[in-house]
Amino acid sequence: MAEKNMKYEPLDPDEKLLAEVNEKLKTDPCNPELWYQKGLQHTWKGEGEMALHCFSTGLIYAPFNSSLRTWRGRKLMGQSDYTLAISELATASALNPMDWEAWYYQGVAAYLEGMYEHAKMCHTKARHLIAKHDPLCLAATVDWYWMTCMKLGERDEAKRVVDKYIRADMPAFDGDYLCRTLLYKGDLSPEGFTEKCMANIKNPERPRAYYLMLQYGLANYYHYMGQDDKATPILIEVATTKDCQSYFAVKQAIKDLKERNISY
Length: 264
Known about the structure:
Layout: H1 15-27, H2 32-44, H3 48-61, H4 66-78, H5 82-95, H6 100-113, H7 116-133, H8 138-151, H9 155-165, H10 175-185, H11 193-199, H12 207-224, H13 228-239, H14 248-259
Helix pairs in contact: 1-2, 2-3, 3-4, 4-5, 4-6, 5-6, 6-7, 7-8, 8-9, 8-10, 10-12, 11-12, 12-13, 12-14, 13-14
């Protein structure tokens, strides 16, 4: 089953391919590969419920397929069902322990569920695999590891990993995550942070995603620097956005405000 790397997402849906897959499913409804391909196309169309249905159906016919498990877990994350997502992604990691994406998303789900020790373990696994096989995606898991360690009060460990793996000149697909980790490291200033990073955006078709990611990272940085007077207004801005409500930055902002008993 062909797997797709996180760094190539999101893709534009291929309506022709989707039509072909739908036609094939009429005569071959028990083919897990077809359900997998159909699920991906609905994912690119932003149709999360249908994508979840497709990946779940595929698992009926291939229950030990790690790719289907990973994608089902990711779709459950989109519904904020983090415990169920973690269980699916943990199964995917057990089936294919070399798939860094399963570890990465399991770590993200664990963080959002408040299972910080588990998140730390998952992002450690993901980081080692990414560093070896897909270094362009390293900044993302280092960012989540930093946030996890800060939640656990392990500031020295957070600093150690950022200092070891993050450089201003490193190639990175996720420019937003790279900017955030450079902020944590002290290589970028919080003053004008979002504006400066947006000026160098590498994914111009996703400016809103970059903006929210950068703003949340800035708010998180201010919080851990003891400047909640600056952090809170940014968190409220991100949490109350009318669009992109499925984005991790928005979910994190809502979670942080709730944990700090801040009404908005």
